[in-house]
Amino acid sequence: MNVSQLAEKLGLEIYGGAKGLDQEITGGYTSDLLSDVMGHARAGSIWITLQTHKNVMAIASLKELAAVVIVKGYLPEEDMLEQSNIEGIPVLGTHEEAFEISGKTYKLLHKK
Amino acid sequence: MHFEFKVEGGNFSRAGFPSSEVKKRLKQLNVDGSVIKRTVVALYEAEVNIVAHAYSGVISVDIDAGKIIITLADEGPGIPDIRKAMEIGYSTATPEVREMGFGAGMGLSNMNSNADKLEITSEVGKGTTVVITNYFHE
Predict the structure, then answer these.
(1) E strand or H helix at B138
(2) Chain B residues with CB inside 8 Å of A58's CB?
(3) Which of A38, A51, A62 sits opposite B110 (nearest CB)?
(4) Which of B102, B104, B120, B125 has the fewest Cβ atoms within 10 Å of its own Cβ atom?
(5) Residue A31 belongs to domain spanning
(6) What is the average pLDDT across B68-81?
Protein backbone atom coordinates (compact mmCIF):
# COMPACT_ATOMS: atom_id res chain seq x y z
CA MET A 1 0.00 0.00 0.00
CA ASN A 2 1.36 3.45 -0.79
CA VAL A 3 0.98 6.68 1.18
CA SER A 4 -1.83 8.08 -0.93
CA GLN A 5 -3.89 4.86 -0.66
CA LEU A 6 -3.47 4.86 3.11
CA ALA A 7 -4.46 8.53 3.29
CA GLU A 8 -7.58 7.82 1.28
CA LYS A 9 -8.62 4.74 3.29
CA LEU A 10 -8.16 6.51 6.64
CA GLY A 11 -9.41 9.91 5.53
CA LEU A 12 -6.13 11.63 6.38
CA GLU A 13 -5.41 15.27 5.55
CA ILE A 14 -2.43 15.81 3.27
CA TYR A 15 -0.52 18.89 4.43
CA GLY A 16 2.63 18.63 2.33
CA GLY A 17 5.27 16.52 0.63
CA ALA A 18 2.94 15.46 -2.19
CA LYS A 19 5.95 14.28 -4.25
CA GLY A 20 6.21 11.29 -1.91
CA LEU A 21 2.60 10.09 -2.07
CA ASP A 22 3.55 7.10 -4.24
CA GLN A 23 6.03 5.87 -1.63
CA GLU A 24 5.29 2.29 -0.55
CA ILE A 25 4.59 1.79 3.18
CA THR A 26 6.25 -1.23 4.75
CA GLY A 27 5.40 -0.64 8.41
CA GLY A 28 4.69 1.91 11.09
CA TYR A 29 6.15 3.40 14.24
CA THR A 30 4.27 5.38 16.89
CA SER A 31 6.32 7.59 19.22
CA ASP A 32 6.81 11.18 20.33
CA LEU A 33 10.42 10.72 21.43
CA LEU A 34 12.74 11.58 18.59
CA SER A 35 15.65 9.43 19.73
CA ASP A 36 13.30 6.47 20.05
CA VAL A 37 12.34 6.87 16.39
CA MET A 38 15.96 7.49 15.46
CA GLY A 39 17.02 4.29 17.17
CA HIS A 40 14.17 1.96 16.26
CA ALA A 41 11.98 3.01 13.29
CA ARG A 42 12.60 1.11 10.05
CA ALA A 43 12.93 2.63 6.58
CA GLY A 44 9.62 2.71 4.70
CA SER A 45 7.54 3.11 7.88
CA ILE A 46 4.95 5.76 8.54
CA TRP A 47 5.62 7.66 11.76
CA ILE A 48 2.61 8.50 13.92
CA THR A 49 3.28 11.35 16.37
CA LEU A 50 2.04 14.54 17.99
CA GLN A 51 5.29 16.40 17.31
CA THR A 52 4.85 19.22 14.80
CA HIS A 53 8.29 20.82 14.36
CA LYS A 54 10.94 20.77 11.64
CA ASN A 55 13.25 18.27 13.34
CA VAL A 56 10.64 15.59 12.72
CA MET A 57 11.39 15.93 9.00
CA ALA A 58 15.16 15.69 9.56
CA ILE A 59 14.62 12.35 11.27
CA ALA A 60 12.05 11.16 8.71
CA SER A 61 14.55 11.93 5.96
CA LEU A 62 17.60 10.40 7.65
CA LYS A 63 15.63 7.23 8.47
CA GLU A 64 13.99 7.16 5.01
CA LEU A 65 10.48 6.98 6.45
CA ALA A 66 7.51 6.90 4.07
CA ALA A 67 5.42 9.63 5.73
CA VAL A 68 4.56 11.36 9.01
CA VAL A 69 1.04 11.33 10.47
CA ILE A 70 0.26 14.06 12.99
CA VAL A 71 -2.47 13.10 15.46
CA LYS A 72 -5.22 14.87 17.43
CA GLY A 73 -5.74 17.59 14.82
CA TYR A 74 -2.43 19.30 15.56
CA LEU A 75 -1.07 21.28 12.62
CA PRO A 76 2.51 21.12 11.33
CA GLU A 77 4.60 24.24 11.92
CA GLU A 78 5.42 26.21 8.80
CA ASP A 79 9.08 25.21 8.61
CA MET A 80 8.11 21.55 9.07
CA LEU A 81 5.87 21.84 6.01
CA GLU A 82 8.57 23.57 4.02
CA GLN A 83 10.97 20.76 4.83
CA SER A 84 8.32 18.16 3.98
CA ASN A 85 8.01 19.66 0.50
CA ILE A 86 11.78 19.90 0.03
CA GLU A 87 12.31 16.28 1.08
CA GLY A 88 9.22 14.97 -0.69
CA ILE A 89 8.11 13.17 2.46
CA PRO A 90 4.37 13.61 3.02
CA VAL A 91 3.02 15.07 6.25
CA LEU A 92 -0.50 13.80 6.90
CA GLY A 93 -2.96 14.58 9.67
CA THR A 94 -5.88 13.11 11.58
CA HIS A 95 -8.17 14.22 14.39
CA GLU A 96 -7.90 10.79 15.96
CA GLU A 97 -5.51 9.87 18.77
CA ALA A 98 -2.33 7.88 18.23
CA PHE A 99 -3.88 4.68 19.62
CA GLU A 100 -6.82 4.68 17.21
CA ILE A 101 -4.93 5.65 14.09
CA SER A 102 -2.10 3.22 14.86
CA GLY A 103 -4.63 0.39 15.25
CA LYS A 104 -6.34 1.21 11.98
CA THR A 105 -3.05 1.51 10.13
CA TYR A 106 -1.82 -1.78 11.56
CA LYS A 107 -5.00 -3.52 10.45
CA LEU A 108 -4.74 -2.14 6.90
CA LEU A 109 -1.06 -3.01 6.54
CA HIS A 110 -1.56 -6.55 7.80
CA LYS A 111 -4.72 -7.35 5.83
CA LYS A 112 -4.19 -10.22 3.41
CA MET B 1 38.31 13.25 2.24
CA HIS B 2 37.96 15.85 4.99
CA PHE B 3 35.18 18.33 5.67
CA GLU B 4 33.78 20.29 8.61
CA PHE B 5 30.56 21.78 9.91
CA LYS B 6 29.99 24.44 12.53
CA VAL B 7 27.22 23.82 15.06
CA GLU B 8 25.47 26.56 16.98
CA GLY B 9 24.19 25.77 20.48
CA GLY B 10 20.44 26.19 20.85
CA ASN B 11 19.72 26.37 17.12
CA PHE B 12 17.53 23.35 16.43
CA SER B 13 16.37 24.61 13.05
CA ARG B 14 19.63 23.56 11.40
CA ALA B 15 20.01 20.27 13.24
CA GLY B 16 20.37 17.35 10.86
CA PHE B 17 22.20 19.18 8.07
CA PRO B 18 25.63 17.60 8.75
CA SER B 19 24.06 14.13 9.01
CA SER B 20 22.26 14.62 5.74
CA GLU B 21 25.47 15.79 4.00
CA VAL B 22 27.46 12.86 5.36
CA LYS B 23 24.74 10.51 4.17
CA LYS B 24 24.95 11.94 0.65
CA ARG B 25 28.75 11.63 0.52
CA LEU B 26 28.73 8.05 1.79
CA LYS B 27 26.07 7.11 -0.78
CA GLN B 28 28.21 8.63 -3.54
CA LEU B 29 31.10 6.49 -2.31
CA ASN B 30 28.87 3.38 -2.50
CA VAL B 31 29.34 2.59 1.17
CA ASP B 32 27.12 -0.26 2.40
CA GLY B 33 23.60 0.95 3.27
CA SER B 34 23.59 -0.46 6.79
CA VAL B 35 26.87 1.33 7.59
CA ILE B 36 25.37 4.60 6.30
CA LYS B 37 22.24 4.12 8.44
CA ARG B 38 24.25 3.48 11.61
CA THR B 39 26.64 6.37 10.97
CA VAL B 40 23.80 8.82 10.40
CA VAL B 41 22.01 7.82 13.63
CA ALA B 42 25.18 8.18 15.72
CA LEU B 43 26.10 11.50 14.11
CA TYR B 44 22.62 13.00 14.40
CA GLU B 45 22.40 12.15 18.10
CA ALA B 46 25.84 13.60 18.76
CA GLU B 47 25.00 16.76 16.85
CA VAL B 48 21.72 17.22 18.73
CA ASN B 49 23.63 16.88 22.00
CA ILE B 50 25.78 19.88 21.00
CA VAL B 51 22.69 21.89 20.03
CA ALA B 52 20.86 20.95 23.24
CA HIS B 53 23.70 21.31 25.74
CA ALA B 54 26.70 23.24 24.40
CA TYR B 55 27.38 26.80 23.21
CA SER B 56 29.08 25.91 19.94
CA GLY B 57 30.89 23.06 18.28
CA VAL B 58 32.76 21.82 15.24
CA ILE B 59 32.12 18.54 13.48
CA SER B 60 35.12 17.20 11.52
CA VAL B 61 34.58 14.29 9.17
CA ASP B 62 37.39 12.16 7.74
CA ILE B 63 36.65 9.43 5.23
CA ASP B 64 39.15 7.00 3.74
CA ALA B 65 38.77 3.73 1.84
CA GLY B 66 37.93 1.72 4.93
CA LYS B 67 36.32 3.95 7.51
CA ILE B 68 34.72 7.20 8.57
CA ILE B 69 35.93 9.08 11.64
CA ILE B 70 33.71 11.87 12.95
CA THR B 71 35.02 14.18 15.66
CA LEU B 72 32.51 16.45 17.42
CA ALA B 73 34.26 18.98 19.64
CA ASP B 74 32.14 21.44 21.60
CA GLU B 75 32.60 24.35 23.94
CA GLY B 76 30.08 23.78 26.67
CA PRO B 77 29.42 22.73 30.23
CA GLY B 78 31.06 19.31 29.87
CA ILE B 79 29.82 16.03 31.35
CA PRO B 80 30.69 15.47 35.03
CA ASP B 81 29.93 11.73 35.00
CA ILE B 82 30.10 10.10 31.57
CA ARG B 83 29.11 6.67 32.88
CA LYS B 84 25.93 8.13 34.38
CA ALA B 85 25.21 10.03 31.15
CA MET B 86 25.40 6.76 29.21
CA GLU B 87 22.53 5.25 31.25
CA ILE B 88 19.31 4.94 29.26
CA GLY B 89 16.77 7.47 30.55
CA TYR B 90 19.31 9.72 32.27
CA SER B 91 19.02 13.25 30.93
CA THR B 92 19.91 16.81 31.91
CA ALA B 93 17.92 18.39 29.07
CA THR B 94 15.76 21.45 29.73
CA PRO B 95 11.95 21.19 29.74
CA GLU B 96 11.83 23.06 26.40
CA VAL B 97 14.12 20.53 24.76
CA ARG B 98 12.09 17.65 26.23
CA GLU B 99 8.86 19.11 24.92
CA MET B 100 10.26 18.80 21.41
CA GLY B 101 10.71 15.09 22.02
CA PHE B 102 14.47 15.33 22.54
CA GLY B 103 16.26 14.78 25.83
CA ALA B 104 14.71 11.44 26.75
CA GLY B 105 18.07 9.98 27.74
CA MET B 106 18.35 7.72 24.69
CA GLY B 107 20.84 9.66 22.59
CA LEU B 108 24.10 8.33 24.02
CA SER B 109 22.82 4.78 23.97
CA ASN B 110 21.81 5.20 20.31
CA MET B 111 25.31 6.50 19.61
CA ASN B 112 26.84 3.57 21.44
CA SER B 113 24.88 0.96 19.51
CA ASN B 114 25.41 2.62 16.11
CA ALA B 115 29.14 3.34 16.34
CA ASP B 116 31.84 0.68 15.93
CA LYS B 117 33.98 2.77 18.25
CA LEU B 118 32.75 5.61 20.47
CA GLU B 119 35.15 7.73 22.50
CA ILE B 120 33.93 10.50 24.79
CA THR B 121 36.21 12.84 26.69
CA SER B 122 34.95 15.79 28.66
CA GLU B 123 36.14 18.56 30.91
CA VAL B 124 33.58 20.24 33.14
CA GLY B 125 33.32 23.94 32.34
CA LYS B 126 35.19 23.56 29.04
CA GLY B 127 33.52 21.11 26.73
CA THR B 128 33.14 17.63 25.37
CA THR B 129 34.73 15.77 22.47
CA VAL B 130 33.05 12.76 20.91
CA VAL B 131 34.79 10.57 18.32
CA ILE B 132 32.69 8.15 16.29
CA THR B 133 34.45 5.59 14.10
CA ASN B 134 32.60 3.31 11.71
CA TYR B 135 34.24 0.76 9.42
CA PHE B 136 32.93 0.10 5.91
CA HIS B 137 33.75 -3.61 5.97
CA GLU B 138 33.59 -6.15 8.77
Answers:
(1) none
(2) 15-16, 19-20, 44
(3) A38
(4) B125
(5) 3-109
(6) 97
